[in-house]
Structures are given as structure tokens and as C-alpha cells.
């Protein structure tokens, strides 16, 4: 088929209709278009306006992100607002600040800011449309190769994929070449923005687009199509791997104090390939970015070869990996700081709890609070007498003698922590309630003998929770 014939046959509204039908987007959902005003998104916006005239069961919104990185950014906003009015589509202008600090990728930071802006305009069930096309896919595959990524990275972009937990991202133009898009835009007289940064080859994508891909196409004219086919095959294989990992992984995960953990004894009995796949799956399941292959190999080596009682703590960016009692625990470096107690001892005035069913709440850290409720039901701590000062303490000495109810003898606090399976880093965050200098309760774990209310006697219930 000739280029002119292909150009004339290109119906973007039909491509959108096919994508929306395939993705199962329900009536009433909002179709949000990432609208830069460049030729690709301009043609997609035109197609969306044509689709919208025939499909009133959806809502529509163009979102243009003002990054503030170009002197022409304000003019681009004016262009997009004008074109949105001509298309009869609502538009939202989102102004963002891109972190251009040292060792920051402007490309990556701008992309993250754009996607955050899009999410802010979406609700569960909505779909984001982007104008990625066949040549963008080739660039993505080449970038994945430069970074040494595996099948998941080489799978590049899918025509449909999840966008967060309850939204979708669809790419109606992913099978269409840049050449055909530009020819169609010219044929219909489409006015669009030209971003001057697209000619700056200091950016990796631009370097590939300007210097490398033209030479590849000169040698292999169909390389964008064949690279897209390879990406599809990688995605297919990755889907099988992900399904198998999801099926196997629950056997290795234990719900323990301190969060879900991975059983390193079971993991160590697997082949090295499965060790990597399962540990990477565990990291991703908890929402953390996976480490590189070399980092993963080093982490597994330290976790699996350490003595059972060895303390292992590793930091990879914001990911914190720790070993305790033969299990691996994952956490966030940021959350670790946010969950640290604001002070080691908090004095509590319980005079406001004189009435039955009274309640008070106290801040323990940036993310944690403690509620104290006076009740006559459930396991509860007896009320302090007028001479006893109530305090909340953290990092209580491990040598402190404790006698939890329903235990026949006194034990040291550190022994009780171990018996409860509480990792060392969690112990310092457990609120311990004192009446004077007497420990009466480890919140969430036990009440001391002699301080448990009996029958209908009113007492205090202590509950810690996150905000």
C-alpha cells in the first residue's frame, strides 16, 4: 500500500474506538488525554474529538502540563487552550516544578511530574490516553538495551496496561509510525507545537532519534516494526514468568511482627535463577523499585550466607533490606525516619479520661498515633491512682523485668521481644506504658500481671495506629 493510501486510511477515531473497546472501559469513565500540543498528541486530540461526538457515554479531558522548562511554555498553554476549544473538549492546565538538581535526569523527572499531574485528574476506572507511536517503541527498546534490562524492560510499552491500582493507560497510536502521523497531520492542516528541546541530542531519546535510528532505518527499513514484535514477545514471556512467580511466592512469605518477610531458608533451597526471580518478585510486590542484577546478586549473597544470628542491613536508594531470624524484611528509608518516636518519653495527663468511654489521642511519630480509651469491656489496663504519673516510653532497656499476664514467671524484656518475634528495629518503636517507674503494658503485645482489669472494672485500652 502506498504512503498516500496509508495516510488517507489512517482513522485515529477508529483506533481510539478499538483501544477503548479492547480495554473494557465502562460507560461514565473519563478518557484523559496527555496533551502536549506536539504533532502526535495533536492528532490524537483531533481523533478524540471525533470519537467524542459519537460516544456520549464517556467523559473527556485534555491535560496539558506546564513544566516551566521552556521560554515558550506560556505560549504552548495558549495554543492548547485554543485548540481544545476548537475540538470542543475540556482542558486542564497543570503547572509542575521539575527537580533539575545535581545527578537528576531532567527527562525522568519531567516524565514523573507529568504522570503525577495526570493521576491528579483521574478517578478509579478512568483511562489515560498517550500518543506514543511505533518509533517511540523503538527508542524505548534501544534505551532498554543500553541499560542492560531483561525481558520486562525489553517488553517496552504495551498498547494497554494498568495505570496504578484502578486505572488504565492506553496507546492507540502504538502501531503507527511517526512518518505516517506527520503525513496525516499535514494532510488535514493540523497546527501543532514544535518543542525546541527535541533537537537537543544531550537527551538520550533525542540522540537515538536524531543520530542512531535514521541510520538503522537506512539499513533495515522495517526495524521499528520488528523491534515492536520483539517487545511483544518479551512481554509475552515476562507475563508467563510473572504468573509463575506470583503462584510460587506466597509459600515463601510469612506474616510476622514487623511486616511480611521472606523465608531465607526456603529461598536458599531454590536454584540461583529462582532465588533472583522470587526475591525480585517480593520486592516488587511490596511496591519498591527492583535493584539491578548486580545489586540483587550481592544482596542475596549477604542474606543467604550470613549466620542465622547475624545482623544484616542494606540500603539501596529508598529500599531498606534487613535480616532477622532467618527472614528478610523490606522497608523504606524514608518511612524509617517518619516512624521514629518524636521523643523517648511522653508524659500523659489522664485527667480527661475520668468519664466512661472517654478517649484521647497522642502523636508518637510523624506517622503513628496512640489512642487511649476508657472502657469496661475487653482486655484493659487498670486505671492509675492519683499518685502515679503516666508516661509512654520507647527503647526500654532489654534487662527490664516483665511478667505478662498468663505467664508463670518473670522474664527479661529482650527475651520477650525475641519470643514474640519482634525484629530489633521494631522494638524501639513499641510504646511501653509506665505508671511511675513500673511497666504496665507493651502496647499491642501484653499487659503486666497485676495491672489487668477484672470483671466490670473500668480501665484503659491503648491502641497504636498509623495516619
From TrEMBL:
<dbReference type="InterPro" id="IPR012795">
    <property type="entry name" value="tRNA_Ile_lys_synt_N"/>
</dbReference>
<comment type="similarity">
    <text>Belongs to the tRNA(Ile)-lysidine synthase family.</text>
</comment>
<dbReference type="Pfam" id="PF09179">
    <property type="entry name" value="TilS"/>
</dbReference>
<feature type="domain" description="Lysidine-tRNA(Ile) synthetase C-terminal">
    <location>
        <begin position="390"/>
        <end position="462"/>
    </location>
</feature>
<dbReference type="InterPro" id="IPR015262">
    <property type="entry name" value="tRNA_Ile_lys_synt_subst-bd"/>
</dbReference>
<dbReference type="InterPro" id="IPR012796">
    <property type="entry name" value="Lysidine-tRNA-synth_C"/>
</dbReference>
<dbReference type="GO" id="GO:0032267">
    <property type="term" value="F:tRNA(Ile)-lysidine synthase activity"/>
</dbReference>
<dbReference type="InterPro" id="IPR012094">
    <property type="entry name" value="tRNA_Ile_lys_synt"/>
</dbReference>
<dbReference type="GO" id="GO:0005524">
    <property type="term" value="F:ATP binding"/>
</dbReference>
<protein>
    <recommendedName>
        <fullName>tRNA(Ile)-lysidine synthase</fullName>
        <ecNumber>6.3.4.19</ecNumber>
    </recommendedName>
</protein>
<dbReference type="InterPro" id="IPR011063">
    <property type="entry name" value="TilS/TtcA_N"/>
</dbReference>
<dbReference type="Pfam" id="PF11734">
    <property type="entry name" value="TilS_C"/>
</dbReference>
<feature type="binding site">
    <location>
        <begin position="36"/>
        <end position="41"/>
    </location>
    <ligand>
        <name>ATP</name>
    </ligand>
</feature>
<keyword id="KW-0436">Ligase</keyword>
<keyword id="KW-0067">ATP-binding</keyword>
<comment type="function">
    <text>Ligates lysine onto the cytidine present at position 34 of the AUA codon-specific tRNA(Ile) that contains the anticodon CAU, in an ATP-dependent manner. Cytidine is converted to lysidine, thus changing the amino acid specificity of the tRNA from methionine to isoleucine.</text>
</comment>
<keyword id="KW-0547">Nucleotide-binding</keyword>
<dbReference type="Pfam" id="PF01171">
    <property type="entry name" value="ATP_bind_3"/>
</dbReference>
<keyword id="KW-0819">tRNA processing</keyword>
<dbReference type="InterPro" id="IPR014729">
    <property type="entry name" value="Rossmann-like_a/b/a_fold"/>
</dbReference>
<keyword id="KW-0963">Cytoplasm</keyword>
<dbReference type="GO" id="GO:0006400">
    <property type="term" value="P:tRNA modification"/>
</dbReference>
<dbReference type="GO" id="GO:0005737">
    <property type="term" value="C:cytoplasm"/>
</dbReference>
